Amino acid sequence: MRQNKKSIYLDHSATTPVDKNVLKAMLPYFSNKFGNPSSIHGFGQTALAGVDVAREKVAKFLNCSPLEIIFTSGATEADNLAIFGVIDALSKSDQGKKLHIITSVIEHPAVLEPFRQLEAQGMEVTYLPVEKNGIVNLDVFKKSIRENTVFVSIMYVNSEVGSIQPIREIGKIIEKINRVRIKENKNKVYFHTDAVQALNFLNCDIKYLHVDLLSLSGHKIYGPKGVGALFVKQGTLINGVQLGGHHEKNLRSGTLNVPGIVGLGQAIKICGENKEKNNKKIAELRNEFIILIKQKISNIAINTDINNSTPSHANISFIGAEGESILIALDLEKVAVSTGSACASASLKASPVLSAMGIKDEIAHSTIRFTFGKNNTLSEIEAVLKILPPIIEKLRHMAPEL
After folding, report:
1. Stated pTM of the model
2. Per the residue annotation, which of 64, 204, 271, 343 is the catalytic one?
3. d(CA 305, CA 284)
4. Which of 133, 146, 149, 175 could form a disulfide with 305 if both were Cys (CB 3.0 to 4.6 A apart)?
């Protein structure tokens, strides 16, 4: 074990450290600016001003109106609000009509579980397969659209392998269909994307993407946990799914998390300002890591398609070694990695994402997800590549049947 060594964090897809400038922006709202933004007195109005500024920052990043931003407790709530909120509104406007909705097999559980619940309630659901690179085939998507299709949810970037979905192309296909439907006075197809893993790296301009709804999270962009947002395009049919007060345009009841919202606003501002510089640095680290790991460890499979992924991800199978054992051994060396999505990594089942990509269970079980961030350094990468080869060699000797 490395003694007195600095911890190395390579799990940025699970969460990110709060940027010092984000924390600085948040701190006053825990103390002298602590008011409830729904209150009409001075304390409340000061807090509300902080929320309004944050809303403007998020809207600027997405190139939308501040009125189209709904703050939530995170991306899971934003996903649930998008799915259940739109379906509830459409079901009430089209009573008795069977509705069809579309998603992919590799979505985050925050999308898949609502779809499964709606399916259990009688909704028609299509789960799109993905290619070997983890990307939805556009021709398959086109063929899946039916006369009664009303909602599509496809994530922008997969959290396990980093694959980038053709969101803009899907959005343009849906937009073309909607032009015909509007002329025929039929329900349009609403398009939602979970962009949690995309904000740091990709163009999230909602006009560029042609989306109606977009979910995001604070803690994946060096902001605080417990806060997120949902972009809802003006004119979208959507109902609130949480009863209580009339906050956030009646779509999300509950006292606003002012420090968190302020932190989210500052984090997304910094994200927009430094995206190009950070992307370049992270890509160089990730690519160097993959080059070196191929040289140092044999019999591995790179599951991340380098040409169609964010620069942060390196999903690698170490064939003949068990993934959980690798993770634990690295943790003992103060290196933090993951075996998959942090929201589902406690499961001992093979990753549904890797299975959907055609990867055999025994290989999927040997997989580690390395995700790099803006604070990582080349010396950290080199340190990990000194630690990892003997770990893999030892585990392979312990499990020769794999």
Report:
1. 0.95
2. 343
3. 15
4. 133
